[in-house]
Amino acid sequence: MSTLRIGVAGAGRVFERLYLPALAARRDIAVVGVAEPRLERFADVPPTAARARSVEELLDGVELDGLIVLTPPSRHVPDASLAMARGIPVLVEKPMATSPAEVETLRSAGGAGLLTPAFTRRYWPAYRAVAAAGPAWDVSIRLRSDPAGWDAVEGGATPLEDLAPHVLDLASFLTRSAIDLVLAEPHARGVAIDLTMANGAAARVVLDWPGEYREAMRVDGRTRHAGPPSLLASAGRRVLRRADPPVAAVGAMLGDWAARLRGETTAMLPAFEDGAAVVAAIEAVRARLGG
Fold first, then answer.
1. Is 165 within 8 Å of 119 (Cβ atoms)?
2. DSSP 42
3. Hey, CA dihedral for 275, 80, 256, 50, is it positive or negative?
4. 3-class SS at 92?
5. Is 250 helix (H, G, I), strand (E, B) or coil?
6. The pTM is what?
7. Which domains are seen in the chain, by residue range?
8. pLDDT band for position 243 (cuts 50, 70, 90)
9. How far apart, in whole angstroms, are the C-alpha atoms of residue 116 and residue 6?
10. Residue 121, Cα to own-chain centre: how many angstroms?
11. Per-residue pLDDT tens digits for 246-262
12. HEC string for 134-167
């Protein structure tokens, strides 16, 4: 198996805490270059990777088989478009765009064939197990977190943009259906979103922020654990030197993306239209909430 030459745009916290350790564990991917305007962030970059101050400089200086876009959401469209203009496939962190208009810009740039949105929760064991037994017909997911606690190097996504993409994509992934209708209302410190799926399934998503991280789901009447992991499970992973679930999920997704770049078929990896549907749903939530 040949090693894919991959570039990274953005060396912030997502790169540092998730993608860097996940990439280090893969033998089919080599990070050959990183684009990052903040020079101090290169301390985390592999010494063998080229360093560039912009995506354009990176593309001019290094031959790539693919580009991972981890810049703030406002940069996703221009950074991904630069790579796609050269025929280079891109993997773009959520949200892949900040509006439906930006989605159409990406589509015009070749996104339908070249862009993969990064929805890593599909690869968490709890959600994979439900999807394997699916389709689910009644899904409820609650996610509480504190986006500010991530200590982002550069501000970017709003709490809604940060949390909603995960669970909106899961609604489609678990029910195996597109979102047909979106209703939303304020809920405690966040928002409650009710989804009617095209196949008649129903999904309810509750997002709370800020707060101590909690994640739970109920599928067809059965409650399932999602996170955080138990102390025993965490201790077991450390003893066995296994990656934390978020890092392991990124690694599994990267493996599927690498397979797609080699022309193989992948069942779980999101498609461009999955990312477009999430952006449209977030826009519908904003409209329901009045802005």
1. yes
2. G
3. negative
4. strand
5. helix
6. 0.93
7. 4-119+251-261 (3.40.50.720), 121-240+268-289 (3.30.360.10)
8. low
9. 14
10. 7
11. 999 999 999 999 999 99
12. CCCCEEEEEEECCHHHHCCCCCCCCHHHHHHHHH
